[in-house]
Design goal:
This protein is mainly α. It has 2 domains: 88 residues, no CATH class; 109 residues, no CATH class. The chain has 12 helices and no strands. It is elongated, with a radius of gyration of 24 Å. The structure holds zinc ion. This is Reverse transcriptase. It comes from Phrynocephalus forsythii.
Length: 203
């Protein structure tokens, strides 16, 4: 038992021992909570005493769990079966693991998939000629996500608020690099700031 005790918590014998010890006082509230969370596939060890650590692990488990159910759904859809077959080489985009309010996540995801209600998109679905999809701000430019993020004067106050720090040294960059900076960031601050900008700009 002493040898098992010295093992790390990622080792199966240790986990079994812990489980055994815990079942001795199976009526404690801690045990009950573990049973409930384990039922949802979110079990974690009670030895993690620090609340923040437990929170972090719980959050990670929840993310793993939802990713797993997504893969399961995909594998049931015949057209997307190839995607689940390749799940071992797939990785989660970093922004998906950042905890965001639902409305912000929605805004950021819409931006990433070019689903914003821009004139370019509207025109595209209504078969307008490309040159007619100009912005309502009056500038003679197509309203696409680059215009919304970097140039449109209708959002200059919002841009100043949320994006000016991030974009400060990128004025001379190619527009695609600037878009990548905002759309594929793995930094919490950037993702959150961009999401807030888009959320406020589109409500
Ligand atoms: Zn504009």
């Amino acid at each position: 038992a002493a040898k098992i005790q010295s093992l790390g918590f990622d080792r199966l014998p240790k986990l079994c021992l812990v489980e055994q010890t815990a079942s001795d006082n199976s009526n404690s509230w801690a045990k009950q909570i573990r049973i409930i969370t384990a039922h949802f596939g979110l079990s974690f060890q009670s030895q993690i005493l620090h609340v923040n650590q437990a929170k972090e692990i719980f959050l990670q488990r929840a993310l793993d769990h939802s990713a797993q159910s997504d893969l399961e759904l995909l594998s049931k859809n015949r057209a997307l079966g190839w995607l689940s077959k390749n799940k071992l080489v797939f990785h989660c985009e970093k922004y998906l693991t950042i905890s965001l309010h639902f409305s912000l996540r929605k805004a950021y995801t819409r931006l990433r998939f070019e689903l914003l209600e821009s004139m370019n998109k509207y025109g595209h679905f209504h078969n307008w000629p490309y040159c007619d999809r100009t912005c309502i701000c009056g500038a003679p430019v197509i309203e696409d996500i680059a215009h919304i993020l970097f140039d449109c004067e209708l959002f200059s106050a919002l841009r100043q608020n949320y994006l000016s720090n991030i974009l400060a040294n990128t004025l001379h960059w190619n527009v695609n690099y600037r878009l990548s900076l905002l759309l594929t960031s793995s930094t919490v601050q950037v993702v959150r700031a961009v999401a807030r900008f888009i959320h406020k700009a589109t409500v």
